[in-house]
Design a protein that fits this description.
Layout lengths: L16 H15 L11 H8 L3 H13 L3 E4 L3 E4 L4 E3 L7 H7 L4 E12 L2 H7 L6 E11 L2 E11 L16 H9 L5 E10 L2 H7 L6 E11 L2 E11 L3 E3 L6
Parallel strand pairs: 3-10
Antiparallel strand pairs: 1-2, 4-5, 5-6, 6-9, 7-8, 8-9
Helix pairs in contact: 1-3
Keywords: DNA-binding, Transcription, Transcription regulation
Organism: Mesorhizobium alhagi CCNWXJ12-2
GO biological process, one term: negative regulation of DNA-templated transcription
């Protein structure tokens, strides 16, 4: 494909040039022209193709690397990553929103949906009594049709009456809670640990049993208190945690 086919930033638009470049590169990746694992053009050539300076280009590339779309290897170049969810300092969003922010096509498969009772850990997280009714939603989460993780969310039954009707929520759980019950997340606390994937989860995640994974426990609250306790098992090769430390 000729270099002239790449859309160049429009300096008359209000968006910064680096942002326009970022979106242009996202579009190229999404189109499949640069498939997963492929090396993108060198900075000098890519700058000419997009009509921007190296400083502007590097700003966009750094953002895309931080967002998990690109991987830089010193001495080799920059490569398109597989679908990766990067966790770090970020806004309180749903998995669906996070995936969309990364330019990935979100997918989900319901593994279990029904009522249960709170065990000790769930009761403590949701600030309810052990044995109280809870709604359980277990889903296989996908990015660009590739498995990323298994999430088991539990909601206190008293906060979400008749949640099982008409069936499992489609799309974002938070959007469903907001629309049906007026529940709006205000804060979430997360705990991360590393564990080995069990046999059953490994089959769903398309991994060998015993592969490393992140286990993430998340308690989300609104103005009334905790309304969601989620345990996620995320593929170690498709989920990253990045932090910025400052003095």
């Amino acid at each position: 494909m000729s270099e002239a086919t790449y859309a160049q930033p429009d300096r008359r638009r209000p968006e910064p040039l680096w942002y326009q470049v970022e979106q242009a590169i996202r579009a190229i990746i999404k189109s499949g022209e640069w498939p997963t694992g492929s090396q993108i053009p060198a900075e000098d050539r890519l700058g000419i193709m997009l009509g921007v300076s190296r400083i502007t280009l590097r700003h966009a590339l750094r953002n895309l690397e931080e967002q998990g779309l690109l991987r830089r290897e010193h001495g080799r170049g920059t490569f398109v990553r597989s679908a990766t969810l990067v966790a770090g300092t970020r806004e309180l969003t749903s998995f669906t929103q996070e995936m969309g922010n990364l330019g990935l096509v979100v997918g989900s498969r319901i593994l279990d949906f029904g009522m249960g009772t709170a065990d000790a850990a769930t009761a403590g997280a949701l600030e309810i009594e052990e044995g109280d009714p809870v709604v359980r939603i277990r889903r296989l989460r996908l990015g660009n049709d590739a498995p990323i993780g298994i999430q088991t969310a539990q909601l206190p039954g008293v906060r979400v009456p008749n949640f099982l009707e008409p069936g499992p929520p489609e799309g974002s759980l938070y959007e469903t809670l907001s629309r049906r019950y007026g529940i709006m997340p205000v804060e979430a606390r997360e705990v991360y640990r590393v564990a080995s994937v069990g046999i059953d989860d490994a089959a769903l995640l398309d991994l060998p049993a015993g592969s490393p994974a992140f286990v993430v426990e998340r308690v989300t609250t609104d103005e009334r208190g905790p309304f969601e306790f989620t345990v996620s098992v995320m593929r170690g090769d498709r989920y990253e945690i990045r932090s910025t430390l400052r003095t």
